[in-house]
Amino acid sequence: MKIAIKNFLTTLRRYKVASVLNIAGMTLAFLAFYVIMSQVYYNITYNRPIKDSDRTYILVTRFAEADWMALASRMDAENALSSWPDVECFGAILKRGMGSEYVWVRNSEYNYDRYDYKTANISLPLLDVLSFRTVEGDVRRLSEPETVIISESLAERMGVHAGDEVYLPDMGAVKDDPDAGRKPARRMTVAGIYADFAPNTMMSDVHIAMDAGDDHLTGEKRYWCNYTYYVKLREGASPEAMAEAWKRANPNAGDDAAELVPIRDIYYWQTLKFGTVEQGSKSGTAVLFGIAMLIVVVAFINFVNFFFAMIPVRLRAVNICKVFGAPTSALRWNFLFESVGMVLCSLLLALYLMVVVQESFLAEYVTCSLAMSDNLPALALVLVITVVIALASSLYPAWYITSFNASLAVKSGFAGSAAGRRMRLILTGVQFIISITLIIVSAAFWMQYRYMMRFDMGFDRDNLLTFESTGTIAGRGNAFLSYLESDPDIAAVTTASVDVIGSMNTKSWWENDLFMEVRNCAVRYNFFDVMGIPLIDGDGFSPSDENRNRGVVINRYLAETMNRNVGDLLNPLGRVAGITDDVMMHDVSQNKQFMAWECGTDNMRFFYVRVHGGSDIKRVCDFIRKEHVARLYDQVKRQTVLVSLFALLSVVISLMGVFGIVLFETQHRRREIAVRRVFGASTSGIIWMLNRRYALIVAVCFVVAAPVAWYVVARWMERFVNRTDISWLIYLGALALVLAITLALVTLRSWRAANENPSRVLGGE
Question: Are residues 250 and 296 in the same domain?
């Protein structure tokens, strides 16, 4: 063992550059694999940590031919589920049940500590459906008046226990006091504290809940589709029977429909359009998994290249040892120990970096936790790959280098043999193919993301600032608007009742056997002028229209579908006062939507401020505007950033391998280069000789990589309704980038070999 350790340290000292490059490459590869596989594990096991997830479902509904939504009318859902004998239990949740976004803890007679957590409304049976685990108190006491239950993490943060008091706002007073939602008013008792749900579940963001009671079960609200229903079926029950059970319980439902979707599958159920459900795409997960494996393959190839490249310079020493009686098994053990030692060094460095990245910028681009305790399967995969790489990268080279006859001690013929050249060529080629493919794919992802961010949504986004006001400011109405417009940098101001970018309300009705779903909201009379939305017909709104129900402005898609012109009546919205072009105030990956705007002034909490171009606050306005629109494409951005970062990492690791190969190749060809110099070869000629080989390798690899990248990009782009054209310049750019960096590295290393004194090289032979 001492000899093996001594040989390992000698290898590190003698081949410093190659050793450092390989350890660094494997460290980065292990880290990248851990981060990516943590996200992949999060995606593919979404909702699986919930007990009995294999027979727990989410109720999805739709009106006629409208989109599916993970929401339902409580009256209809309760009727259907309670009459179906295959249902073991079911429960409902409204994640923003009270509309409250805050909870307070009293720290003195007059002072409160505020925490930004939304209060959910849940029906009591949900405690059984999702198996809430009590850690303190009794969560079933939630049925008692003025009680809440909170998660363990929130209880620790607030420093409260079961039986303590917390405060919630009185949302019923918002109508008279617009700022009531920001004041502690209702004193609630903590009935129980429950264990946090796993991060990759639909309940991970529920930290405080109260009893829904008969909310939305009676009165006009019984028809509102606001609640999400979880259903646990009995063993062996078929979820397909839900559709018929829904029809039986709701005979007047007409073409309305309902289904049960397994909570294990809801993450990838792309048919869903509405509901508080986190979702992803199978193609996105597949891309991430593919990149993780490719990075490991690149690192593995680097490591194998490292050992094969060392064969020509170590073969002489190995065979001399054999001449002096060293057993083959001992020599092979030394090589295995070196390999395992390097991999272990890389693993230890990677484990340290895994702790560091938990709070790094990478955490912003993943939805999963990066804590090792939350990703034990991903960590186990890293350990398995460590063992596989250590053995696979050393067993064959160790057997190969010790299989030669001892007479080769003075020949060192492997490096120049056809087998040696072919092996290095294949391994290097695979690295280049992977790198070029990932560069093209990541560039295409960025092109699509940039296209969506700059897509013509039908309104002028330049120099547009948006913010949500408090209830007090919204209640001040025109006074606050006048205050804003008095600023010389502000050109105009308008308001809306909701966030018009991605969060408009929906009104639904039947007309002539056609089910209509229209996105709508109330806006100030000057909304279209400030937002830069031109009217293609009609005059729109005027100041006198506010609060007078003087009609609506609709988009072209709605006008053409309903065959409505300016002045026509469009029930239940009102008379058409104007028609706009098709404005895209939603994710451009979706189809066109019907849109309508009413004129009003009440509770206009969202402000849109147009500033003059070139004003001092333009930078801030641009920043806020971009962030606001970017929320629509947050998932695409996260995926694009991850792909790009790890594509870059793959290229870096590949180039580390190329540098190592060139390092050993120039060392082996020192005598050949010296002889060429003696016979008059120039430095530039020798550099070109070495560069030409790698330029040809890159070109051939590009021919293989380009169609592979095209296929991956084409499949990924299928998910977008509006997509950019991927120019052939992207492909040439990837080729040029890899070729330029490769030739630069080869030139850097070969320059030294080409300028070495030939007499010193030949004299030492």
Answer: no
